[in-house]
# Entry
Amino acid sequence: MASKGREGEHPSVTLFRQYLRIRTVQPEPDYGAAVTFLEERARQLGLGCQKVEVAPGRVVTVLTWPGTNPRLSSLLLNSHTDVVPVFKEHWSHDPFEAFKDADGYIYGRGTQDMKCVSIQYLEAVRRLKDEGHHFPRTIHMTFVPDEETGGHQGMELFVKRPEFQALRAGFALDEGLANPTDAFTVFYSERSPWWVQVTSTGKPGHGSRFIEDTAAEKLHKVVSSILAFREKERQRLQSNPQLKEGTVTSVNLTKIEGGVAYNVVPATMSASFDFRVAPDVDLKAFEEQLQGWCQAAGEGVTLEFAQKWTDFQVTSIDDSDPWWAAFSGVCKDMLSLQEPHSGARDLPCFHR
# Structure
């Protein structure tokens, strides 16, 4: 076991705080500093390190611990290096200072999503190597960019490259969610992220008149239909303790655009929505429902997708599955829960 530092802090915590201080925050993440940090960890741990630039300034870093039987498929441990934007005025401490209070709580953007998991991977490998373990399967750790913006310049491109195919991954693990209880939650699927923009066109005119067939009126009808659906799903979740957040469809209105002046009725208005569609939903029927709401609002109402993930698979959690049996066997003495993930991750790219 690694010894504690001068201030009694475990080296793994110190490493975690160092990683948190790297400003990989969207929309201008410092990926170069993150890659340098990971390269140094690879050197210290005696791991192979490969850098794959999948797009300009977008590097996937692969750290590899070779197994004793290269003919076997590998285990892939994935994490993303970027974090979402911050509003510093709402933070009690600088989100990139990695401040630790007297109770040991660490404040920082990325503490849960998901730099903690990256350090857990690295520290698990360090401990296993220090204890002299060797495994038949090769273990790859991938650190990818741009997950927080949809993965389009990260994992989505990486899986199409020969460097990814060369990893020969048989099983992959990615991010989960923190659990405030002593239970460990295992996520075997996730919801499909659909980012939808509804655009409404209507008659323009002066703000002093009762203009008929306006863009705002028609957009209001669509917004009302979608928010009514949202409330129905929210009530369904709250009324059934067997349901989890990842088993219902959520939606939030995230942006409204339109208008040029207070006294001018706009010809065009739009609303953007973030849908997370539950794994058991018929995606074709759900899209038809969205189109139906637009048609019911009147002529000139259309929708388009900024993001639409449809190729989702559910990982087997049957005891007959060898990968699940190996994973769950180690966790049998822990209280574990299985459910679909409520957010979106990079793992669906592996199924495409």
User: Anything to note?
Assistant: The chain has a mean pLDDT of 92. The chain has eight helices and 15 strands. Residues 11-175 form a domain with the Aminopeptidase fold (CATH 3.40.630.10).
